[in-house]
């Protein structure tokens, strides 16, 4: 007799596009894509579905439930704990069993809402629709009327093995061959789902990393086409060029940490002359370079030593360099007010700031 293929429904129920993040951190989670892949692997043979989940995304749970109900082979569901969206999955299958210590929890759907009263009213209507949709799964399994099911959901109902069997949520209590199960105590469960904001942040960071790796591969390819390995190529003399910010050798991986340290170091060099709240914002909340910070501080009137700035600018004008433009550099902020591409004499201001800050530090050590 062939052993049944087992499909585990464990951890939070999540959407398919988040599965890779949980896999990356080796965290248990179940998505529709994961279940679909296991069902395809089973190839129509009988499967056993083990559920131990506090729930999660209701739409992902509905998709998994539909996949199990649509599977061509026999599906036997075994419940250890099925809460919220996982309880919807627990209604699928040819036969549903629950452990003697098992629990099923059903309740109304919930969601965060933001906006005016019209927005909130639309959210209320959405949740009512979702609740009725969830109730349909329970009605088809138990045969109970909609009003009773919705009533159980309204008060968040926890069902032990006996109650779940009595109300028709399961077909059998596992291991209870003589029907001697006593009253069991229920326990709470925490939802270990990663917050959506964290998932989005991780997704963005990996997208940046992938883009950086792609650029490096492209640079490697160009270098290979220009000069194949072991083939000597004569190089013409090249005139010395001005130093530009953050150059990267072909094939080299950008040292993001080193660049960040240099950025913070530059800000620290001028921080003594600028409002601390603006310095903190430039460092962490809306990261910008020291040059961008200095210009923003001048524009917003948040310099603590404006006289020194004016002296530096006046000296710059006396030297006849007031029309010299600062070296254009790539913006690192979304703030449209911080644009250094056309600021006359700003380099001299920054140098004066750095010298002033250095003198202060030396005086402090003395």
User: How far is it from the N-terminal to the C-terminal residue, by CA?
Assistant: 86 Å
- What ranges have pLDDT less than 50 throughout 5 or more consecutive residues? 182-190, 226-253, 321-345
Strand content: 5-15%
From the helix content, strand content and strand pairing, which structural class follows? alpha/beta
Give the number of helices.
13
Please supply descriptive tags for the structure shown above:
13 helices; 366 residues; alpha/beta
Structure description:
- By secondary structure, the chain is of the alpha/beta class.
- 48% of the residues lie in helices and 11% in strands.
- It contains 13 helices and 6 strands.
- Strands 1, 2, 3, 4, 5 and 6 form a 6-stranded mixed beta sheet that branches.
- Strand 2, helix 3 and strand 3 form a beta-alpha-beta unit.
- The termini are far apart.
- About 17% of the residues have low confidence.
